[in-house]
Structure formats: structure tokens, C-alpha cells
# Entry
Amino acid sequence: MPMRVSRTFLLAVVLFFLSGALGLGYQLIWIHKASLLVGASQIALATVLTSFFLGLALGSLFVGRYLRSTRWSPLFVYGLFEVAIGIFALLFPILFRGAEAAYGAIYPALSSSPAALFALRFMLLFILFLVPTFFMGGTLPLLLDGLVGRDRSVGALTSFLYGLNILGAVAGVLATSYFAIPLLGLSRTSLIAGFCNLGIGAVALVAFRRLGPLHATVGSVVRPRVPAFFIVLGFASGFAAIAYQVLWARYFGMVSQPSVYFTAVLLAVFLSALAVGSMGLAPLLHHRVRPLRVLACTQPLVPILAFLTLESWSLATYRFKQLGHWEVEPQWALWSEVVDNIFILPSVRIAIVIFLPVMLLGAGLPTIIAAAVHRAEDLRSTAGRIVFWNMLGSSAGGLAAGYILIPVLGLTGGFVVAAAVSTSVAVAAEWRLSAGSKGLWRVARPGYGLAAAVVLFALVWSQIDITERTLQGHGNSKLFKEDSLIAIDEGPLTTAYVFDSPSSRSLGTGAVRMATAHRSQLMPQILQGHLPVLFYPREGWPRSVLGIALGTGQTFGALLRAPIERMDVVDISGEVVGLSLEYFAPFNNNLADDERVTFHRDDGRHFVDRAPDAVYDIVSLEPPPPTNDGIYRLYSLEFYEGVHRVLRDGGVLAQWLPLNLVTPDDVRAMIKTQASVFPYTFLIQESRADFLMVSIKTDAPPRFQTAWIEERLGNLKAERGVKGLRWANGNTYLAASVEGVISMLVAGPDDIARLEAPCIHRDDDQRLSYTSGDRWIMRRYLDRGLERLSFAALPVTPFEDLQAYFADRLPLDELEEDRARNLEPVGGVSLPRVTEATARFAAARTAQDRAIAALAVADLYGQGHKVHEALSWIEQAIDADPAHDRPASLRTVRQLVAENAVVSGADIGTWIAELPADRRVSPLAGAIDAELKAWADRDAKRRSRYVWERAR
# Structure
């Protein structure tokens, strides 16, 4: 019997660990899917989380109070619950399509009422997620009832099982975020998880089928009374834990770039600390330490540690040290470059701040349950009720922190209130313990002393504005340098702020600089507003415009200079809209006062999906950086299909493409995704690194009239700074000239159609959030010339080919020269210079002159990172003069390797290997081979610092 019990316990805890992992995985997947249905706004996210918590709470309550069997073991019933969860996961795609249909049918009738829309979203998601969350919520009471048989083991096993389940959730977060979704996508991950749940349930049903109830049930179900004191403690404990989580997430959002990995790590570290706190409590409770004593002594330490460790994340910085022009070395070399960047260093940063306080928070719920339960047979019912109220408290804590504490009291006030709640839990526990004490002894107890320390810390800390201090000393302050912080708006969605200087004003959210407005310069955002109007392929002017993601409003303000009739501006952040309209009115053409403009606080993707067909002539976007968490929704195939539907024939889509914030593979995939819906897509350069994907909704090739462009240029001429040069030093054309505008064209539909991309971005795969295949380039070269590498992935269409899209004859040579100057700062290959160098090659009479001319062409391509073209010309130089060994020529080919090996080293090595044997021994090939081997040796030495690389 003892061996049988031991095996039963071991199998049950393994299954419970796995079910915890699957449960958190489901939550991540279904939140992503739900945000596509009801939008990605904070209200929508809160709705999803609230429905999750409520379903978990109801499941826990029902199992604890009502579900009893005189025949089956609770472990067998647990298996039934896991099967039910698995069946739901397999049916989820069908159920989700039904929810989409229901939402689409009801939305038009309720869209004008925010309260009614909130109720619709909540009820729809609550119904959708009720079944799985109900069964998930019932698993902990069932396991407790099936495994805890002795009164003295109640506390220890409760804390152990609770912590184990949370530890499983950690595994689920990491596996889902780092492996499953990137490799499989949302839908397949959900389906595989469903089969796993069925497997867990089947194992439990087979293994536990012969077990009976551990606690005999006599007559009707016995429901022990749970004192209100423990219910209140359970609610407060959940409230404090989730409130702290929201507050920390907002704080880290000001000092770290938002990404799917950072979000996953924050959740994983939080859950890990909870698990360690809960499981570490088991030995104390096993040795009969009073649970309320633990609660009274640990909870006041939470705010003290939270206050003291808040800025300690800066101890774990991560940078790349520049070695050469394109060679860098990491400051830290731990496991591998990828693991260090996306997991180890973020984990350390976050853990330094939150691990200790969250570990103490993890002791909260198990100690409350242990204190409330006196008999093992009462554990299921009591735990079910306390977990129910704890889940409600968690839901309330998340809503209160996001919608009340931060917006009303700020981040500092939020931390103070959370400190007050966790301290109150400790005071209440100490008061309960001292119920039999009299006189001064009742107030001279450890818990009260710690509570007094918390009050002192809170009073001191409340005098410091955490948000202002963070923005001034960390986060985006480096971008704004010595500018003055003149406004902060801490709202439900984000923390937005404005920096000001004599020459410019900048808007930021979290750790992202949204945009800068210069008082005297023509900004790229202003050009972005004019370009879709200038390239509108219909006679006259566009009538209606949809603008998504307001930013500073400069883009949409520029659009308002056209005689449009209507503009809908959609932004998910009320904080951004408020600051933009108040502080950037001089830069955005007073958007707030224009009667043609209607503002919508909504997710842009959700707005497009619900908009009528064919209502807009222009759709313009200025979203946050494409790789930020969640922004993939505005660059997916499904989004572009929605935009295509809402545009009229001849309508224009203008989508932002920042080359300094995306990798070469990302760039190709983004362009190809948009062009797969809009075949007539053009690539236009706005500034050094800011490009625009302009697409025309038409079945036939568009024809642009230069006379129409000239007529519309009057609006651009009215902009500040337009009288000077456009944005490229040495440009001979002004921005407000037809030639200046046309010279901004980089690529046309034909070359874009031939562009090879690693993938097409879809809602299900989210590769733009994770990687299209070469995210390591961004990690190394962000702010170090990333735009040059990304631009090299793009085609440049000769104006002779673009002529087909213009009704008038273009000055082709002048446009080529002008564009070459425009593209030079971003590493563009000058077609006129290539043509000139090619002509010299053709005219060369001697072998040496032909080799020198060929190397000149190769050098032009090499500077633009067009490696294949450069190597083909080097091969021509070798063919022309196999013995060519001029020192200047050898330096040229070595420099070409040095500047391209980091990205194209494998291609260069393949080229050398495929050269004919007699050409491979030439001086030029030898110089290339030597430089490539030297680079490979340096790279191997850097890699050898990593544990993983050494192990391989």
C-alpha cells in the first residue's frame, strides 16, 4: 500500500505540473486570438483576463462546495476535467469562428455605446472561455482532496501542490512563447495542446480508475464553515499579487523595449517566484510553524523589498562593444548570443527587481488555506472557497491597478496602495494570532513592527515620483538627452510623455519614442501625410481618409491640407491622443479643432475589420515599431485584406517601413505581404531610414499624371522647412517639386513581385514579433547601421521601368542622379555611377585596366552590401587579369569582405569554393580567402566565450 500511494502521488503531481503548463499556454494563445476578435485595447485585454479569472474562480468554488462522489477518487474526476479541457481546445477553432460571427452581427447595433460594447465583449468572451477555465479552476481542489489524507500534512502539501502547478505554468509560458508559437503558430499550438490534455486525462482515468475517495462522504455533502476572515485575506492576497504584477509591468515598460520575449520573461519570473515561495513554505508548515505567523512576518517585507529593489535592474546591462566597422563583441558571454539576449539577461534584469518580493507573495494563498483548514477532509471545500475569492481578488487587483491606481494616483501611488494592502494582510494575521493576548503584548508583536516599517517606507517613497524619476534617469531620457520633461499622462494603456527643447518637441510612450516635431524642419511624418495624396491616381482630390496610430499627428495634419471631406483617426491610446492634441497642435495643423476629423479610441485592426466596404480613398498608418509586441496585427495578410475591402477603387494605402528598426528578412516579408494583397505597390523613401509602402487598389496598372502632382504640391509648399533642401545633403531638387517627389520612388510593382521573401506574415504565426529568420542582425546592429543592411535587401527599380506608371515623359537621367544622392546615406548603390564604371570596363583596352574597372563596379556594389553582384564583378576582374595583384586592388577586395562577412560570409565562402581551381589561386581570390579566414578566426574566438558554443 505505501508503494502504491507513493506511485499515485508521483504520477498525480507530474500530471498536475503538465496541466499547469498547458493551462498557461492556453491563456497566452487565447488572449492573442481574442484580441483579434475584440481588439487589442487595454479594455479588451482586461475583459479577457477578467473572464479567465472568473471562470477559474467558479470552477474552484463549484468543485469545493458541490462536487462529491462516493465511488470515484477525486484524482479520477481530475482526469475527466483534463479530458474536458482537451475537447474544448480541439473545438476552439470552430467555437472561435462562431464567436466572430456573433460579434460581427451584434457589433453594429452597440458600437455607439461604450458601456454596451464592453458588456458585449465581456459576455461573449466569458461564455467562450467559461468551459475550459471552469475545469481548470477545479483541478487544484480535486488534487488536494485526492492526495492530502492526514491533518498534519494539509499545509505542507497545499503549498507544495500550489507551487508545483505554478511551476508548470512557468514551463508553459516559456515553451509556448519561445518555441510553440514561433514554430507552429497559434492554431496548431492550441490543437497540439488539446491532444496533450486528452493524453493527461486518459492517463489519469486509467491510473486512478480503481481508487476510491480518500475521505469518506456520509449522507449529504458536508460543507465546513469558512470564517469571513480567511475569505477577506484570500481576496486581499490575490488583489495585492496581481496589482504588483501590473505595476511592475508598467515600470519595466518605461525602461525596456516591448517585445514578446520580454513579456514572456516577466510573466515567467513572476510565476517562478510565486512557485518558489509556495514550495519553500512546505517545510515550514510541515514542522508545524503556524501559517498566520508566516503570513504576518512575510507580507510586510513585500513592499519594503519592492521599494528597495526597483532600480536594481540597471546592474544587469547588456551592450555590444564595437570592434570594427561591422564587427561587435558582446559585453556578456554566458550561454549563447541568442539565449543571453532573449532569455538570460532579461530574466536577470527582472529577477533582481521582483523575485524576492514575489517569492514572499507566493506564501500568501497556501498559508491562508492552511490556516483555515483544520481537518484534511475539509480541505477541498475550504480551498475551493478561498481560491474562488483569491481569483476574484486577482481580477479586481488587475483592474484596479490598471484603471484606478495608475491613472488616478500614478505609478508611485499605485505602489503605495499595493503596499498598504499587503501590509493590511499581515496586520490582520497578527491581530488574529494575538486574540488571546492582553495589554501591551497584543500590540508589541513582530507583525506590527514590520507593518510600522512599511508605513515609514511608504511615507518616504510617496515623496518620490517613480515615473518622472525613471523617465529622467533611465528609459527614453537617452534619446531626448537634455530636453525638459513637460508632461506625463499615466493611463490605463501606457505611460505617455512629452519632452521639449528649443528646437523640437518629442512624444514617447513607455520606452518608445513615437515621434519628434521640429520647429523649423520638414519632418518625414509630414512627407508621409502628403505622399498618398500626391500619388492618388484619380483626377481631383481624395474625399475620405482613415488614419491609424496618431503619434504626434503630423502625418494626419499634413493630410488635412488637402480638401478632404472626412477623416477618421483611430488610436488605441487615449494618453497619446490627449498629449498629441494638447502639445502638438502647432505641428499637426490643429487636428482637434478641425470639424472634418472624428477620433476613435480603438484598436486600428479592430476598426478596419468592422468598417463598411469601400468608404475610404486613403488609409495611412504611423504605428509603433513593427517588431513591438502586438504590432504584427497591422502588418499581416489579414489586415491588408481588410484595408483592401474598405478602400474605394483607386484608393491608396500608405504603410510605414522603418529600415532602422527591422531586419533584411523582415523587410522582404513585410513588403511581400502587403504586395500579395495589393499587386501595385511602390516603395518610397521619406528620409534616411524611413520608407513608405504605397499601394494602389486597382485592377489595371495605375497611371500618375505629373500635372495632378504639380497641382497637389501647393499643400506641401506651405509646410515649414520646405524651402530648403529636402532631407538629403546635396539634393538639387526641392521637396515641393515634381522631380523631387518622383525621385523618392525606390522600387515599383514588377521588382517587388520578383522579390523573394522568407514568409508571408499572417495573424496566426506572428513571425514579425519573433523573427522572419535573421533577428540576430537587429540585436547586434540596432543603432549601428541596421538600415544599411536592411536597405541592401531591397530592389531599386530603374526610372526607365517606372516610366510605364507615368502618363508624361520623365527626365530619367536627372531622376536617377537625384535618387542616387538620396539613397547614399542609407548605402544605396548609385545606378549612374555603376553605369559609368561599367562603361569604363567596356572601354578598357588592357587586361589590367579591365580588372581595375571591374573592381570599381564591385566596390560600388560592395558598399551597398549587394554581395552577389560584387562577387560577379570580382570574378570578371579575375577573368580579365588572373595575375592582378595591385596593392590598391587587394585592399579593395579585403575591405569588401570586411564590410560584408558578418552577414554574407557564407555566400563569400561558397563563391570561393565554386571558383575554378586556376582562378582560386589568383591574388584577388587569395586576398578574399585570407580576409574571410581571418574574420572566421575572430568570430570563432568570440563564440568560444559562450558555454553552448564550447559544448558543441
Observations:
- The chain is about 60% helix and 10% strand.
- The CA atoms of residues 26 and 650 lie 42 Å apart.
- Residues 1-5, 724-733 have pLDDT under 50 and may be disordered.
- The domain at 538-826 is CATH 3.40.50.150 (Rossmann fold).
